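During the second half of the funding period, the structural biology subgroup turned its attention to how the target accommodates small molecules. The most pressing case was magnesium ion, which had performed well in the primary screen but for which no bound structure existed. We therefore specified the complex as follows and requested a full 3D prediction, including the ligand pose.
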Amino acid sequence: MKHHLLVVDDEKEILRSLTLTFAKDYEVSAVSSGTEALALLAQRDIALIIADQRMPEMSGAELLARAIEIKPNAIRMILTGYTDTAALVQAINQGHIYQYINKPWDRQELKLAVQRALEHYELAMENQRLLKALQAANERLNDENLLLKKEAGREPAFMDAVIGQSPAMRRIFDLLGKVIDNAATVLLTGETGTGKTLLARHIHAHGPRKGKLFIEQNCGALPETLLESELFGHKRGAFTGAVQDHKGLFEVADGGTLLLDEISEMSAALQVKLLQILQDGRFRRVGESHYRQVDVRVIAATNRDLSAEIETGRFRSDLYYRLNVFPLHVPPLRERSEDIPLLAEHCLRKYRHKLNRQTTGFTEATLQALLQYDYPGNVRELENLIERALILNSDTLIEPGEWLPRFCPDDSELSRLEQVERAEIARLFELHQGNIRLIAKDLGISRTTLWRRMKEYRIGFRTAPNPPVSI
Ligand SMILES: Nc1ncnc2c1ncn2[C@@H]1O[C@H](COP(=O)(O)OP(=O)(O)O)[C@@H](O)[C@H]1O
Ligand SMILES: [Mg+2]
């Protein structure tokens, strides 16, 4: 079943373009005013609304606030120019808006944002359904049901839950408990896909700043000057192309949390600016001479070893110490395989609804295989695996299949042993000048076996497959 999207904008061109963007994947209704939108909302099963902020009769924020009463579960998104930010922050804080999209938007990014938002919607609906079912059943709740109930009752959705029971994750939960309630800077380290962003969101969503904005910026994604103006803002005319005053993310996130991902990619000059804002909350927009003040909780993340970056002079040590007030290291998944079954199950829940599957779990063989894999892409990779498994599999239990990565630890171990053996045979071949009897004796194997191995490893064979050099 296709989701139904409602797009609202007073400009015909924009409506047309949005409709074109989404018509292939969703059912789209396009209307040009808030009043029409509200009427349609009352009649149809709308999953997501995208409204323009600036409309003559009713603003986007106003429309979305009223939409809540009609369709509380519909996802609400708003299209906005940067200058509208102040009004929006309020709407976001009050929970009226799920996400805002800056104009002009990138078509792919918008599609992705909508897709993600709809996943959120599906989970919320699924949670509601679960909650109802559970309330109805209301008896003989086994542990599993209790767990579901807890999750179903949770805001926003269990999608944001941090899963894990390995000692490493337990330790992280302990530490989270200590850091969530204060404003200390947190430095998250760990390989990509281990859950750094998720943890940052968790810290924000469970602390005193939860009603405020959580914003993420990847410091490796922009060239230095753009990153500077993105983070700190700029004054009109500060550089070519700066046609308007621009509020940076530190200002937008004021009162909330800013996640600076790939912090090691920040240039030296920006590191200085960041250090200052961390110390006293003061910064200057590019091109301005006066200081501004904000209160932002900074969480930094990196998949690199910052102390090594300090050695090579790429990262300032004073900034490092400032960021490292509260370090949290997330170990790679292969070092906490106890978490794999739980995470696999969590991912299954996440995707089975989306893919319309009745799957309830994994066969023993599948779990075994999942446990043995080493996940270079960590939890993100596990998640992708499960999604593929669900796409390829419509049985109640997921069987091993082509979706499982081709990785067999026994194989790699074997080939390591083979290498060792080969080197040893080669060494002895040198030492005993090709005397098979002596080599076999040293190795403790029969001459026939040695022959076979030498043939396999092509030791002593100038040009296979002819006879060896000597006996
Ligand atoms: N402990 C966890 N429990 C549940 N989901 C997790 C956990 N760790 C990671 N994930 C999921 O794996 C994916 C990658 O995590 P993410 O936070 O983006 O990793 P990183 O920022 O370290 O690259 C996300 O979809 C996230 O929700
Ligand atoms: Mg991340």
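Two results from this model are relevant to the next phase. DSSP finds 19 helices and 16 strands in the chain. The two ends are 74 Å apart (CA to CA).
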